[in-house]
Amino acid sequence: MPEFYLGIDGGQSSTTALIADSSGCIVGSGKGGPCNHVAASEGRAKFRSAVGNCVRQACEQAGLDSSAITFASACFGFSGGPEDKAAYARELIRSRRYKITHDAEIALSGATAGEPGIIIIAGTGSMAFGRNGRREVARAGGWGYIFGDEGGAFDLVRRALRASLQYEEGWGDQTALRSDLLKATGAPSANALLHDFYTAEYPRTRVATLAPLVSEAANKGDEVADRILQSAAGELVRYTEGVYRNAFRQDERPPVAYIGGVFRSERLRSYYKGLVEQRMSCEVIAPKLQPAAGAVLDALRMDGNESELSGLIEVK
Q1: CATH number belonging to domain 115-287
Q2: What's the predicted TM-score (pTM) here?
């Protein structure tokens, strides 16, 4: 009987499933909705729907019966951690072996194609994760928007609004960020926007979508915006340094991969890359594979299968 391996990337906005055969060829893929909350019955229903739908799509594409298949190995990487989702994942998917972990681990596996390294994630929030050649791991950040997430998209907008408030009140440097934020949101003032951001109308994810305004202002010569990007890049480097110190020897030079919407900013990415190379002498790389492919790779490795992935793989 042919063997098949499942990898799932379960995130805050979507869920992706990939199926590989024993040669490492991706034979099926599927997409579902978000699956990061399971505390309430509604959240559990969405979780089952997201995971179930994307696996069914992947099985259909691979010519497999999703109601009958037992995978050789299945690896799940979940946003927000695996603890509250592990039991539901096992109920939904039949597999001889399971690995149920957080999304940062599969992101690293994809980014380095399974090799040792560090990944820095800067989306709405931020964190770093690393794994050395001895399979020891370390992480830094990921504390959430109240206590951490420095350098993430929400943090960039928070810094931009602070600078806008300071300018509006007459004790901060002049910056185009104020007018840019007001134009993008329709708010009459930075103070009014501050109060809007405290309402349900502006969840954290919506606030985070305004982060590109900071890079746009910096690219037009706004010094305040540029300082925000430099500071954010510095915070992300500190996370990276923490992981490096806790997982790697001083003579090791692991690759450092980046992922997340914040790194679409060429200016911030350049600041980050320069600081990492200066302080750690590590190469900064774009991810080789998407996180779901990293999950499939981990599923193969669980079974002792060292095949390299090929087929329907796209890097996000």
Answers
A1: 3.30.420.40
A2: 0.86
